[in-house]
Amino acid sequence: MEYKPGEHNFREKKAKNNVNTALHNMSLDAGNSSASATKNGSPVFVLGCPRSGTTVLYHMLLSAGDFAVYRAESNVFNLLAPRFGGMHSASDRKKLLDLWLRSNLFRVSGLDADFIRDRIMVDCHSAGDFLRIVMQEIAGNQGVRRWADCTPEHLLHMHEIKRQIPDALFIHIIRDGRDVALSYAQQGWSHPLPWEANERLGVAGLYWDWLVHKGRQQGKLLGADYREVRFEELIANPQETLLKLGLFIDHDLNYERIQRAGIGSVSEPNSSFSTDHDKSFNPVGRWKKKMSAQQIVAFEDLIGDSLLELGYSLVSNSKGSSFRASRMRATYFAMFETKQWMRVKTPLGRFVNLDRIEIEG
After folding, report:
1. Largest interatomic CA distance in the chain
2. Which residues pair with 149 in a beta bridge?
3. 98 within a domain of the structure (yes/no)
């Protein structure tokens, strides 16, 4: 019998979850083999560098039907897990719930606070447990079979996600780094060193370069449960691209049905450039109009090799051999690596900022 919030079969549900956990552990012991046999119910992680189209692809999945509609980034592995010690102890889970139940992540879930608190305190022993419990309950409340997650920075945590959620499938969406950097800098998310305040665009590009390559490195280890898709292909040929992705995740991604449902950015583009919202709106190749010739040369000098590696053509003849490019790549890549290591591998993760989950009170 399927458990519903408010019913009095908590022990029965707990036993069922224990069986599921045992099955998951058996899957891990078998070598994390492909989840192809159960893909039609597997959770799907839509990942990528921020501003690469993760939101629109995620909303396309939700619009296709039979996915839990959850209009938020869970931030479980990148923020909540380091902040609350991996959620292993009851004390950490209690601290987590005291904040999470006052956050936007809970407010948009539609869950009952007392019920989900009891579930987490009893059945959750890891970040994977927390995400799975919350999303399965949302899916159950909505009467759908499966769920997806869209937290771009989870791209850095795919190996750990796969370890804790063995049937997870991963879609890595990649977009031209020049368009990503423009949008990223426009949002005010690029933070160069104080003496390089004029390098916001370049630092955004370096972050794209670093994050995409970190994701691809982990993706190679995931085998058949990892797939890459280009944002430009999704925009230019949505039907064909969605058909291929539908086969990968074993889900009917009917483009006409997706368009009719039009959840979120499917019908309302999530653009950083509000003035572009007109009939000529086109998020592909925006850099050609918004970057000056000088900016293009300087930018391609920094990440031109990576653009070429990913199949994007260059305008300039920059080879990335300038002193500026060498210095900035060494400096900022080391900064990105160090920040990630400190968050995940040291107690400093306990102090990670949670402002983005919008805690009230």
Report:
1. 68
2. 45
3. yes
Question: Buried b / exposed e across 123-152, counting CB within 10 Å, b at 16+?
Answer: bbbbbbbbbbbbbbbbbbeeeeebbbbbbb
28 assigned to some structural domain? no
User: Looking at residues 273-278, what average pLDDT do you find?
Assistant: 46
Domain count, the chain: 1
Q: DSSP state, 53? A: S
pLDDT (average), residues 138-159? 96
What's the sign of the alpha-carbon dihedral 117, 2, 264, 78? Answer: positive
Q: How many CA atoms lie within 13 A of 64 on its CB side?
A: 24
pTM for this predicted structure? 0.85
Between CA 76 and CA 82 the distance in angstroms is: 9
Q: In this structure, is residue 106 part of a structural domain?
A: yes
DSSP letter string, 222-284: TGGGEEEEEHHHHHH-HHHHHHHHHHHHT----HHHHHHH--GGGTS---S-GGG-STT---T
Inform me whether the pLDDT recorded for 161 exceeds 80.
Answer: yes
Contact between 144 and 66 (Cβ < 8 Å)? yes
Query: Over the stretch 231-261, which tens digit does the pLDDT of each residue have?
Result: 999 999 999 999 999 999 999 999 999 999 9
